[in-house]
Amino acid sequence: MPTPQENAEHLGLNFAKQEPGYLNLCVRSGNLLFTSGHVSDLKGKLGAGTTVEQGYEAAKDCAAKILRSVYNSHGTLNGLRVLKLLGCVNSTLEFTEQHLVVNGASDLLHKIFGKTEDGYHARSALGFVQLPTGAAVEVEAIFEIKG
Q1: Cα–Cα distance between 140 and 124 in angstroms, integer?
Q2: Which candidate among 45, 46, 48, 140 keeps its CA 20 to 30 Å from the CA of 3?
Q3: What's the CA gap between 3 and 74, in Å, rounded?
Q4: Entry pTM
Q5: What is the separation of C-alpha 57 from the centre of its chain, rounded to a whole number of angstroms?
Q6: 131-146: average pLDDT
Q7: For residue 101, what are the contacts with CB-CB under 8 A and spacing of at least 6?
Q8: What residue spans define the domains of the chain?
Q9: CA dihedral sign, ordered 93, 36, 121, 64
Q10: Measured between alpha carbons, how far is 138 from 130 in angstroms, rounded to an integer?
């Protein structure tokens, strides 16, 4: 059975070294890893020209960026359990499918860590009137370092 690191590499995720920025992208406290919010490259507002399918891909992009930050901080994706995701969706007041958008992030983590194993996580999917830089989606995560 492939490891989470092997699954991620098979999916072509980018683990290139990141330069330190204004904020820490992934902080360890005890056996937990907390990530900063990672925004999608896609700009736009769900319910006003940006489709659920586009939002789904944007959330998946956020999760891939999170995994890069976790890898750069921890050195591997192996031995981790996904505990919690917070998905923020730039959306109109009428848009009510934030959960379907954030499924893009959850589904990627399920593919890497297993849907009923270490990838089975708690989650919140919320609508926001605006996100930094006009991003369509922002996601943050909490991981447990097992053992």
Answers
A1: 10
A2: 140
A3: 15
A4: 0.97
A5: 11
A6: 98
A7: 46, 52, 55, 56, 58, 59, 87, 89, 125, 137
A8: 32-145
A9: positive
A10: 10
